[in-house]
Amino acid sequence: MPDGCMRIDSCRRCGIKLKIKQKCSICTQPIKFVCNDCRLETEEQIHSTCRLVDMHYKPLAPEIA
Ligand SMILES: [Zn+2]
Ligand SMILES: [Zn+2]
Question: How many Å lie between the centroid of ligand 2 and the Cα of residue 33?
Fold first, then answer.
């Protein structure tokens, strides 16, 4: 597995390795990370291609509460 696919940044505050918080529903690659220590969260990495797939794959359905 090439490293470029799963880029895990270090926390900007503590410099420790971030934990995966959210994965892309299409390609299952991590798109959001959180720091275990200071709870700093990264911004969600949007996969534009996955989003397109997602839109076709899951037609807009209202959430059933
Ligand atoms: Zn994706
Ligand atoms: Zn931190």
Answer: 11
Indicate which ligand has the atom closest to the C-alpha of 14. Answer: 2
Q: pTM to 2 decimals?
A: 0.67
Tokens 């959180």 correspond to: 34
C-alpha 52 to ligand 1 mean position (Å): 10
Domain boundaries, the chain: 3-57
Q: Is the Cβ–Cβ distance between 33 and 6 less than 8 Å?
A: no
* Span 26-61, pLDDT tens digits: 999 999 999 999 999 999 999 999 988 877 766 566
Ligand 2 midpoint to CA 8 (Å): 13
